[in-house]
Amino acid sequence: MDLPGNRSPRRSRPGRRLRLLCLLLSGLLLLAFPGTAGAVTTGNGSLVYSPTAGSSFDPAGTTYAKTVVLKHSGSSNGRILVTYDQLVWVNGKQVYPIYSSDDNGATWTHLTDVVPGNDFSSLIKTSQPFLYEVPQTVGSLAAGTILLAGNIMPSDKSSTRLVIYKSTDHGASFSYLSTVDTGGPATYDPSPTSTTTSVWEPSLAVDKAGALVCYFSDERQKASGILQAVSYRVSSDGGSTWGTEGNVTAIANDSDRPGMITVTPLPNGTYMATYEVVNRPSQTLNTAVVYYKFSSDGVTWTASDLGTPIRLANGRGLGSSPYVKWVAAGGPNGMVVVSAKWALDSSGNISGGQNFYVNYNLGQGPWERLPFATTYDAGDTQGGYFAGFAQAFDTGVDGNTLYQATDVENTTTGYNDIRVGSIPLNAHHYEAERATLTDVTTVSQVDADNGSKIGNINHSDSKVSFTHVNVPTAGTYTVNVRYDNGTGATSSHSVSVNGGTAFTLSYPKTVDWNRYGWAQFTTTLAAGNNTVSFGYNGTYAELDAIDVYQSGVAADGEFKLVNRNSGKYLEIASALTTEGAPAGQWGDTDNPTQVWRIGSSSGAYTLTDLNSGKLLTVSGASTANGAAVVQNASTGSSSQRWTLTPTDSGYATFTDVNSGKLLEIYQNSTADGAIADQWSATGYNCQQWLLVKEGIQ
To answer: What is the per-residue pLDDT for 158?
Structure first.
């Protein structure tokens, strides 16, 4: 548990209190030409709420931003609801404020304040809210009912109570539903000798049996050597009554302290939980490492298993107040998305924090990064603003947009604002360090996408040219540009598309050269490859990546396929574009012939080579072992369709629908140029493939 009642925690670790110099970004960016109204990506998102200077009883002002996008509410589908821990008295009480947006997060309306009743004799404090839309009929609750869970306590914090309120009018009003559990005083003490008995941090989900589950943190099991557990209670009647307590994770060592649990269902029928573990990596270096684990049904867990830390392939991880959700966009398995307050280096030290961590293989195997929509001072570890704490996100109705709600430091008021930004999940993504570069510098930076950005775009001949911006159809596209600009004033680049007339793209200042923002323009692209070039325009900014997409249009995921045996990438030999050119493997060449667009097709998938536009095919529709795998134009043949079957550690097999045989590298070869063929299942690693997205183009 990391939030004692409704007060920001004080971390017992070395570090200095970081104060920011200015708000991140101001104003919208100049467009190549006007685009349609949509979700807010530029300007560090949109402002939902800002405490008035001098109004808060706590230096943070706000924490615990939570959001939900309605998807089961009929004509109200698409409405975005936001709540948060508002550290301001309202008529002698704290409240849970409810804000809504019906224009994709551009503007916000204060709908209501959820005010606890006369539960205590003294002033009431509210904390740790969680928003949830019921996705199906659950007991007495209809699909589309909005639930607000939270922790309420008297002003002296002498007890803690996990309560749930419900709304049947899409968030306009709420009524008390039930109390899930009660605990002792709201006192934060993570030491091994702690005697606290609080309950904290409720979150909600529906289990495989269709019952409502409330997950929470429990400090009342210390007699069993459990400093704190993440636990649950189940309600089969829609939240009116609650069953006996069970544990998700409860470690009997008087040290590991899991808390702040959220749970998401996965499309394979399993459930995934994330939570921080206070006193990890150690009691002296307490950066609250984020862990995860799985359940077959949402309520059956191995409680004695601490779980697995979320880590990139290079060992970087996450810490503090995670939030997890599976989303359908991103690839054939969708993706698991996790947010947290800060990132960690491979030793567990706080190191940046401007990216979601995502997994394209149902939580198995390595994790990758996805840039935040809205950034904040992730390094504020000693209280104060404590920006980004316990943030949340959700996707739009069509699944193409992710909305991120978080608290962001405001140095004018001295408090945190609540802001909501968005990023597209249907974008073709291109990283600047893999562009064609002229008289610039590649710069390593921990929060840059794939760990690198392009700087020193400072000369008349400096150029960053994305020469393989590949889109399936001609039309108008939006281009989001992730940049940083620490000059203290607005900067710009000269931008041209396919050699056309250049225009100026402006970049409002960012906090420093390591804090990212988004610029945006719209442009016309041709089907197939396009070139988008950025050049020096008299001022200075750095480029990290671009996202190219059409609003409301789904996009197939683009991946490299890594062979488990060789570690090399599936490609078309010599980047050929001809019919029947063979597929094989090679080390990284930074060529789009090693990038595959994976699209759904009648219960299976097609794999389209990004360089040639042709499909991965078993030659001649053969069913024989050893038949060559090549590329051909689309014919509709089942020899161009593949099914994916997970194995372990994130790897999967690709089975040709026509032959029933597996894609492999012939004779287990590890050599560059070894050919791809099909063969019956052998269990060899040469028949297993890993989908990799970050840093591929």
So the answer is: 93
Burial of 283 (0-12, 13-18, 19+ CB in 10 A): middle
Task: Fold for 64-424, please state it.
Answer: Neuraminidase (2.120.10)
CATH number for the domain formed by residue range(s) 557-692: 2.80.10.50
Q: Which residues of 636-654 are buried (b: 16+ CB within 10 A; e: fewer)?
A: eebbbbbebebbeebbbbb
Number of C-beta neighbours around residue 247 at 10 A: 18
Ordered by start, the domain boundaries in the chain are: 64-424, 428-549, 557-692
- Cis peptide bond upstream of 267, omega within 30: no
User: Six-digit token pair at 411?
Assistant: 């140095």
Give every strand in the sheet of 160-167, ordered side by side.
124-133, 146-154, 160-167, 175-183
Within its chain, how far is the Cα of 539 from the centroid?
32
Phi, psi of 64 (to 5 degrees): 55, 45
CA–CA gap between residue 52 and residue 412 (Å, rounded): 10
- Cα–Cα dist 266/333, whole Å: 9
CA 261 and chain centroid, separation: 16
Rounded distance between C-alpha atoms, residue 390 and residue 395, angstroms: 17
Query: What's the predicted TM-score (pTM) here?
Result: 0.94
Residue with tokens 């909005």: 146
Question: 297: alpha, beta or left, given left = phi > 0 and alpha = psi -120 to 50?
Answer: alpha
Per residue, the 3-state secondary structure of 391-427, as one string, reads CEEEECCCCCEEEEEEEEEECCCCEEEEEEEEEECCC
Return the pLDDT at 381.
61
pLDDT over 90 percentage in the chain: 87
Residue type, 461: D
Q: How does strand 109-114 pair with strand 80-86?
A: unpaired
Q: Of 540, 533, 536, 537, nearest to 432 (Cα)?
A: 533
What is the residue whose two structure tokens read 């108008």? 476
Residue type, 314: N
Question: What is the third-level CATH fold of 428-549?
Answer: Jelly Rolls (2.60.120)
